[in-house]
TrEMBL record:
Encoding gene, per UniProt annotation: recX
PANTHER family for this protein: REGULATORY PROTEIN RECX FAMILY PROTEIN (PTHR33602)
Major subcellular location class: cytoplasm
A single GO BP: regulation of DNA repair
Name of the protein in its database record: Regulatory protein RecX
Compartments reported by the entry: Cytoplasm
Function: Modulates RecA activity.
Domain RecX first three-helical per the UniProt entry, residue ranges: 67-105
Entry superkingdom: Bacteria
């Protein structure tokens, strides 16, 4: 048996009280309880509690604690079921405690993975340049089911993908000028768009719309790589040297006429 000897307001935590319970052995236990628990059990000074009542109070208090923790976690942004479960487990709660809470949050529509996916996709489209495949991977990581994710990503129109892919590519394309051959730059940009989550039906038209590298830029890039090749194969002489340099530049994607012109310049400098 327990006797409730004291009820005191918790000045540091709104809606909470401290209650002192004297055990039959003479020791005192202090519990922090929410006002809802206080009301439901009609707790008052001098009241005697059985062991079952004591355990019930602790259980209900724990349920309130985990619920308020979940509500606070949701106050920053929407969450998926998986995110909520992982968060509460990190806070030290067990699956048996988490499952009833998840069911309550689902019933109250505070957790809704499909709504989360739809909002997530809208935000990604508006605020980032990520393609649909990358967004789908993010949804999968957050625990969204495939059917919910597929339904949400369908709102990412082809035109919106073209627009976002173009924005992303303009920044990346300017960084590659005068560094690579046109062919190598084309392949690099294609890989970047693929990694960004876009499919070939978007990549091809976007690459077509990018301003091609000027002949002057490509020549500067060729000179840079050509000089590197000349140093690399300096131990070779004559025709063998020229062949090594040509092969190196060809693998970099430069056109034959430019390569021949560069090698001719090297020959004249000898």
């Amino acid at each position: 048996m327990y006797k409730l000897s004291k009820i005191q307001v918790n000045d540091r935590k709104k809606g909470y009280f401290f209650i002192d319970l004297e055990e039959s052995a003479g020791s005192t236990i202090t519990l922090e309880v929410h006002e809802d628990v206080l009301v439901v059990h009609a707790l008052r000074k001098g009241m005697e509690l059985t062991q079952d009542q004591f355990e019930s109070i602790k259980s209900e208090e724990n349920q309130i604690k985990i619920y308020h923790l979940a509500i606070n976690y949701l106050s920053y942004r929407m969450r998926t079921k998986q995110e909520m479960e992982e968060y509460l487990m990190k806070k030290g709660f067990q699956r048996g405690e988490i499952h009833p809470l998840i069911e309550r949050l689902l019933k109250e529509k505070l957790l809704d993975d499909r709504a989360f996916a739809e909002a997530f996709v809208r935000t990604r489209i508006r605020l980032t340049t990520k393609g649909p495949n990358l967004i789908l991977r993010e949804l999968d990581k957050a625990g969204v089911r495939e059917d919910d994710a597929s339904s949400a990503i369908s709102s990412y129109s082809f035109d919106a993908q073209l627009d976002n892919a173009s924005k992303y590519l303009k920044k990346k394309a300017s960084a590659g000028k005068a560094k690579r051959s046109s062919a190598e730059e084309h392949n690099r940009l294609s890989r970047l768009l693929m990694q960004r989550g876009y499919n070939t039906n978007v990549i091809k038209p976007v690459l077509t719309g990018i301003s091609p590298q000027t002949e002057e830029d490509e020549w500067k890039a060729l000179e840079k790589h050509g000089e590197k090749a000349a140093r690399k194969f300096a131990r070779h002489n004559g025709r063998e040297f020229e062949q090594k340099v040509k092969q190196y530049l060809y693998r970099k994607g430069f056109p034959f006429p430019m390569i021949d012109a560069f090698v001719a310049e090297l020959r004249e400098e000898e």
